[in-house]
Amino acid sequence: MKKIAVGMMVGWLAFQVAAAEGEWMTDFAKAQEKAKAERKLVLVDFTGSDWCPPCKALHKNVFSSSEFAEFAKKNLILVEVDFPRRKEQPEPLKKANRELAKKHEIDGYPTVIVFDSNGKQLDKKVGYSGKNAKDYIADLQQIKDKSS
Asked: Which positions ≥6 away from 115 have C-beta within 8 Å?
């Protein structure tokens, strides 16, 4: 009985973490389709998730927050374009990520680009200034308001 209770608790915690972080896609084209269908913006995070200190800070301070998850659920389709050094990725994903980075002239990490549902680039930020989730969301809200 104890094992079942512990297992349920671990499962619940994993669900809570996943919910707080939102659902991140890796296929930009599918994300664009979903954004169009749901009338949302697309936020693309070009990151070095396992080696880039500013990328890790952005994830910890903003993307992992419940405030961001709540905002994203209503307003964004999230896409992670990752360039890890230690984490394995399938070759087709690596290739797609390299092509996206080249197309959008990514020269630093993190780079966050916001697109409208038609694929028009609305904003591009290179680096992470240390903003908290509330201020980061306020910036995203301004981008959303201007695009409406």
From this structure: 32, 35, 41, 42, 44, 121, 122
